[in-house]
Design brief:
The complex is a heterodimer. By secondary structure, chain A is mainly alpha-helical. Chain A has helices at about 1-10, 20-35, 45-50, 65, 100-115, 120-130; strands spanning about 75, 85. In chain A, α3 crosses α6. In chain A, about 50% of the residues lie in helices and about 5% in strands. Chain A has a two-stranded antiparallel sheet. Chain B is an all-alpha fold. Chain B has six helices and no strands. Chain B has helices at about 1-15, 35-40, 55-60, 75-90, 105-110, 115-120. Chain B is globular, with a radius of gyration of 16 Å. Classes of the chains: A mainly alpha, B mainly alpha. The interface of A and B includes residues 79, 107, 109 and 111 of A.
């Protein structure tokens, strides 16, 4: 019961569970440290980031190259063809519940797609977008 | 220093040819490890440890930031764990190509597979074990569980 009350009181009611809320809190702190003028994450920016062509290397030019443009859909690894479970928690409740896993994949995929690490704001926008998908 | 590396690379590369008939290592008993299965199995089938010799696994696990063109880096703990598992059950032979599909034993085992079969949409690549080996995800490659897609 306490858990539910606590969740209801959180300002981030859009996040389905405490693990997701804790995750986004961590990125808010990181984004503030990165930029004192940080004014919050945006699902819209996150969606743009997800579908925009970033690099030129075929197969890793965008997040959507493997995950498809619909984060509720199954994806497929562009090289091996292995299926990838949906990214949006609405279709795959395991997503965004394990910070170490989230960070591991940001490290790998930002490097593959952008050729650099993602900023805390980019990561927070991305997560906010995924969590907002219904 | 650079020259030393080239020399070392040559020493590693030459014994690979002596490896030709040292195949069949991949048929030995297979033991799974949950970390290996999860980490190596996220982008491709988790290839069994006995498909490459220990020296190849060490080299491959030391370069996960550029794993055949993809960043597949692990945390230091995971990397140590998976390396120990792979090396502990590695196949015999000396370090050859890091690509299993270029090993002498692999080519020997697949020498009856025609070139056009590898190119079929459902196969895509020789690295796609489960296209034909139905139980590859469980580490089983027995001949009775093979179905080649049309």
């Amino acid at each position: 019961m306490h858990k539910f009350l606590f969740a209801a009181l959180l300002p981030l009611g859009a996040f389905a569970n405490l693990a997701q809320a804790a995750l986004i809190d961590d990125y808010i702190a990181a984004a503030r440290a990165e930029d004192p003028k940080f004014a919050g994450f945006s699902a819209e920016r996150g969606q743009q980031f997800f579908v925009t062509r970033q690099g030129s290397r075929v197969g890793t030019e965008a997040c959507a190259a493997c995950h498809t443009r619909d984060p509720r859909a199954m994806g497929a690894h562009s090289r091996t063809g292995k299926t990838i479970q949906p990214m949006a928690p609405v279709a795959n409740p395991e997503r965004l519940t394990d910070k170490a896993k989230v960070e591991k994949w940001f490290k790998r995929n930002c490097n593959d797609v952008l050729g650099r690490a993602c900023t805390a704001r980019e990561k927070g926008d991305f997560i906010t977008y995924l969590a907002s998908v219904r | 220093m650079k020259r030393l590396f080239i020399l070392l690379a040559a020493c590693v590369a030459i014994p690979a040819f002596a490896d030709r008939d040292e195949g069949h290592e991949h048929r030995t008993t297979f033991k799974a490890d949950p970390v290996w299965l999860k980490e190596c199995g996220s982008c491709h089938v988790a290839y069994p440890a006995n498909m490459l010799p220990a020296a190849s696994w060490k080299k491959l696990m030391g370069g996960l930031q550029d794993h055949f063109g993809t960043d597949a880096s692990l945390t230091p703990d995971e990397q140590r764990h998976v390396t120990d598992f792979l090396v502990g059950q590695a196949g015999r032979g000396s370090a050859s190509s890091l690509r299993i599909t270029q090993s002498a034993w692999f080519r020997h085992e697949h020498d009856e597979v025609r070139a056009d079969v590898w190119k079929r949409a459902a196969v895509k690549s020789p690295a796609n074990c489960q296209a034909c080996h139905l139980e590859a995800a469980q580490g089983r490659f027995d001949e009775h569980a093979i179905r080649i897609p049309r």
